[in-house]
Amino acid sequence: xxxxxxxxxxxxxxSELITKLRKEYGADNVIATDIRTADSEVVHGGPFEILDVTxxxxxxxxxxxxxVDTMMxxxxxxxxxxxxxxQLAWHLNMGGLVNGLEAAREHHLQFFTPSSIGAFGPDTPxxxxxxxxxxxxxxxxxxxxxxxxxLCDYYFTRFxxxxxxxxxxxxxxxxxxxxxxxxxxxxxxYYEALKTGKYTSYIDKGTYMDMMYMPDALQxxxxxxxxxxxxxxxxxxxxxxxxxxxxxxxxxxxxxxxPSFEISYQPDPVRQAIADSWPDAIDASASKAEWGFKAExxxxxxxxxxxxxxxxxxPQ
Length: 316
Ligand code: AKB
Description:
By secondary structure, this protein is an alpha/beta fold. It has 12 helices and 16 strands. Helices cover about 45% and strands about 15% of the residues. Strand 1 (about 5), helix 1 and strand 2 form a beta-alpha-beta unit. Helix 1 (about 10-25) packs across helix 8, helix 3 runs parallel beside helix 5 and helix 5 packs parallel to helix 6 (about 140-160). The model has no long low-confidence stretch (mean pLDDT about 95). 2-amino-3-ketobutyric acid (AKB) binds near residues 118 and 168.
């Protein structure tokens, strides 16, 4: 049975990951940590500790205190916020990652951290983006993610740390809203559809990006961490995706449930430029071949579930 410490546990992925891991491995075996606290299930449903991931000593203390054997490092600034404050992004995204990898090396932990489609750039092939290809991102977030992928590879080859990771596309969820990402429009649109019946998209029509529904993202983390290491030719930064979509397609799908829904466009120059530098559709065949990745939800089934869950306010 794993004993897992999760950083950034109150974030968009963390908050749902904690619930899933506590169901799979037992509440006491999943230690949620975040820089802040909240009145939520993450905090009250099992062990919870305040942790600033840039504080290596505090991180090591918690790893020792709870005798964990696995770290899932989720704390990070997303792409748009990183572009607003690149120095802070470097400090938090890279400082936190190095501390996590060092703790994994010292305490012999299995280690997961997500990379992103943000690790690609304008020179990357846009369609069917291969697993191994040109990576020259033009954002600080992308620079952090490529550096992180390389660091995780390095800690595996140099120190034998069991590092694993995926390149997540935009993640769509109904529990905790994302903050500061470029793909966040694809979450906001569902909330606004139900609240006001309309949405003004900061990403222009025709801008394709990869996306995935949160249950598939969480299953991907668990499956990769449980995968037979002998079958992994890649370890970190596996391409994963469920759909390549643009705002008009999401709007059309929402209209099937809310016929009066209207979308309009007011592109935000910063986030539009980031989106334009990312692939339209990545190729996830290495994940499928090496550890059996499979996404269950497409745009239609995700939209039906999102609207139903948001309408009924079903907690995770
Ligand atoms: C973002 O938009 O920054 C994230 C991501 C794709 O990494 N959702």
